[in-house]
Amino acid sequence: MTVRPISLPKIGFGMTAISDMPNTYGYSVDERQARETLEVILSGPPVLIDTSRNYGSGRSEVRVGAALEAYGGLPEGFVLSTKLDRDMETRRFDAEQARRSMEESLKALGVDQFDLLHLHDPEYASHLEDVTRKGGALDELFKMKEEGWAKSVGLAAGRTDIMLPLLKQWDFDALITHNRFTLLNQHAESLIDQAVARGVAVINAAPFAGGLLGKGSASGAVYVYQKPSAQILKRVQEIEAICARHGVPLGAAALHASMREPRIANTLCGVSKTAHVALLRDWVERSLPEALWQDLSLLPIDHGDPEATRTYEAD
After folding, report:
1. How many Å apart are CA 22 and CA 309, to the nearest integer?
2. Burial classification of residue 204, based on how many CB atoms lie within 10 Å of its CB (0-12 exposed, 13-18 middle, 19 or more buried)
3. Using an 8 Å Cβ cutoff, are 172 and 3 in contact?
4. Beta-carbon count within 10 A of 201 CB
5. CA nearest to 74, candidates 113, 101, 100, 35
6. Which of 19, 9, 17, 12 is CA-nearest to residue 108?
7. What number of other Cβ atoms are within 10 A of residue 275's Cβ?
8. Residue 156: its H or E element
9. In this structure, are residues 149 and 121 in contact, taking their beta carbons and an 8 Å threshold?
10. Which residues contact 298 (CB under 8 A, 6 or more apart)?
11. Could you report the per-residue pLDDT of 104-143, keeping only the tens digit for each?
12. What gap in Å lies between CA 81 and CA 252, rounded to an integer?
């Protein structure tokens, strides 16, 4: 069964870093900084705002909810997305836990319906069967849509070997892949192709690969939440050299590489301060020369999983 793609703004802002996740990003974000960042986002053009029950042990949704309340609700044209999550202590992810997660999200965000509700990171569940079996968490997700709690439902995860079978079996409206379709890596290529074939809207998160493709090789930024190898740094330097020849910031090229891809409905970028929001808006409006893409197309692209060696630490 083919589903109808939902309507999404071209750009989205991810609410991981504003929830204060130092284990993941290497820095903290206090409530004031998060509030100011959200105020700037809500006062600008429509975007997707994406959060999750487990980002910052619930802080992300609480901070987003407080900002929405102060603003008077979600502005017209904006899309609010959140996720059902496993129990972070036991990793239990059955239907009961999914329902509990949804109820906690409704309370934290101060809404009575989600624009988009995803099942999040099934690969970290204690038992994947609790997610996929009849009457499991996925059944519960689609039940929530039928009950009117969510306008659309999706799948947000990392491992494509987990996502691909689920995508074949379930009629999701949207899908989030992260770190796996960037200037350096296109591991999600087959996943994106299958999603598009099924009419599923693809949200491409983390086009800067955790920071490195936004801040550059000399910044000390992480690559997919890990210290970049010498080989990765060399490849980024090659991209930087091409960008410099065309007078294009590395981050703008990384962003537009996702935005210009016709299979991608929304490009989701993490932000943690007002300056990040302003910079992204500037990059979005830039016109990049076609010769840049011709030169970049000559560089090799990795198709392995960039997070294969990552050690996951919850914040």
Report:
1. 19
2. buried
3. yes
4. 24
5. 113
6. 19
7. 11
8. strand 150-156
9. no
10. none
11. 999 999 999 999 999 999 999 999 999 999 999 999 999 9
12. 25
- d(CA 60, CA 47) in angstroms, rounded, equals 17
CB contact set of 311 (below 8 Å; sequence gap of 6+):
none
Pair of tokens at residue 65: 């909810």
Burial of 105-140, coded b for 16+ CB within 10 Å and e otherwise, reads bbebbbbeebbbbbbbbbebbeebebbbeeebbbbb
Residue 161 identity: D
Question: Closest by alpha carbon to 86, among 49, 133, 137, 135?
Answer: 137
- DSSP 3-state of 238: helix
Residue 189 CB coordination number (10 Å): 15
List pLDDT tens digits, range 13-25: 999 999 998 887 7
Interatomic CA distance for residues 151 and 148, integer angstroms: 7
HSE of 59, CA atoms in CB hemisphere, 13 A: 18
Axis crossing angle, helix 95-109 with helix 59-71, rounded to the nearest 10? 40
How would DSSP label each residue in 20-57? --HHHHSS---HHHHHHHHHHHHTSS--EEE--TTGGG
Q: What percentage of the chain's residues is helix, strand, coil (to nearest 5)?
A: 45, 15, 40
DSSP lists the bridge partners of residue 175 as 155, 202
Q: pTM for this one? A: 0.96
